[in-house]
Amino acid sequence: MLQNNDIQCAPVVIVGAGPTGATAAILLAQYGIRSLVLDRWDGVYPQPRAVHMDDEVCRVVARLGLADRFASISRPAHGLQLRDQHHRVLAEFRRDTAPSSNGYPQANMFDQPELEAVLRDELMRQRSIELRGNAEVTGVEQVDGRVHVTYRDHAGETTTSVDANFVLGCDGANSFVRSTIGSRMEDLHFDQRWLVVDVDTDADLKQWEGVHQVCDPARAATYMRIGATRYRWEFQLLPGETAAQYAKLAAVEPLIAPWTRGIRTDQLQLIRVAEYTFRAQIADRWRAGNVFILGDAAHLTPPFVGQGMGAGLRDAHNLAWKLAGVLRGDLSPGILDSYQQERKPHARAMIRLALAVGRFMTAGGEVGSVLRGVVVPRLGLIPGLRSRIVDSSTPALHRSPLVRRRLGPRSLTGTLCPNPTLPDGRRLDDVLGLGFAVVTAVPPTSEQRTLIEQRGATVYLAEPGTELARWLRQRRTAAALVRPDRTVMATARRPGDLLAHTPRYRRTVVLPHARED
Q1: 231, exposed or middle or buried, with CB in 10 Å at 0-12, 13-18, 19+?
Q2: Cα 140 to Cα 180: distance, rounded to the nearest angstrom
Q3: Which SS3 state, helix, strand or coil, does residue 258 take?
Q4: Which of 388, 439, 456, 503 has its CA 20 to 30 A from that of 190?
Q5: How far apart are CA 332 and CA 402, in angstroms?
Q6: What does the pLDDT read at residue 377?
Q7: What is d(CA 406, CA 394) in angstroms, rounded to the nearest whole number?
Q8: pTM: predicted TM-score of the whole model, two decimal places
Q9: Are 29 and 510 in contact (CB under 8 A)?
């Protein structure tokens, strides 16, 4: 017999404690916003899924104060090889493993359960976050500007109700929260069944330390090294095949043989074999009233460009500071509409890129294979294409109340501000704090500085010859208004011209690396 506990209250209820939900909770905690995180599992989901994170998303992880811990469980990838069905290298696109302008390597391989364990540990350290596992949300109802959430505690067989100002649905592809707001997934017409194989071995496979994409219309495949001893393969399943047929190492060996020749069977430990259906979908609406959806609840992308999990962290980074501003009274509630305005077109663009790569790998049959053999080796000869292929930067955000009109293709608005190492050894992100900032190559007057700082923004002067000064000069501007998520909101020729665009946004005393021990 289920029992009902007394109604409780929380400013924000987050449904789902995966990477997206955990990131949102930690970011809110940095602004002093309390949250209740509900997850249907008691602990970290043990199966590895995501394995790639680009430098832009690494910057979000650093914002959580977890840069060093993530570096300890990840390894930079060296780029991309395109191979034919006989594993001959058609083209190789090397990627520099040194930190990019965002401050981190452009491609980083990791094991998702290890990352989730780091995030869970950080959740537990924050006093303003309450995490409840074994909690299945059964009701989300909006009444008089509040959200009434009901969940079932499977451990104690009780039901509990919580009233919240906002609810964030980070509950995955089969999102219950999405269904409660009447949002539907738009099918972008991609549906492929793939086999995912994870292997652990101390043996040296003697493979190139990057991602291998096998462009085979009969059996496309991907190979990645994701740790010191961990390796991931993905193979397109043939009609009628299932993961059950590959449950044992003996069945998997013929598939992975091109990479493991010379390695004894007893040197390989099969960690997991699973079947995934790679889909491309995007929700038609990401918000209804005070309920939002993030991560896989809002979009599903094939993994060909490694942006699935990262898109969810981008969602959390985009929304958390806006939500905190509304709850603190700094921003008007209408500003929250910018979340979908900015994130949905960006997510759609990344899904389309993944679709293009996936279809390139698998389409065309034998004719497609012949064409790839002719065209791919010549891709690097096209001016600018090689650098674009290895460039990890993603599209600029679309115009919104928090992204001013873009003035030409070289405009900075909607793009990320660089994150260089400064003369004192710190990264720019750490210096700018958690609010708005004006980065300028033109010294502001004392009055301008005072007026900007009265709005809660930081003023950072880019010295001549520095990376920041060159960044501004190359785009023919002198000053940039940078949002808390490091997106450029507006640019001007004089820092004082940005005052009219700078919202009042209170400074916070909680630093990104601080923990409430």
Answers
A1: buried
A2: 7
A3: helix
A4: 388
A5: 12
A6: 55
A7: 16
A8: 0.92
A9: yes
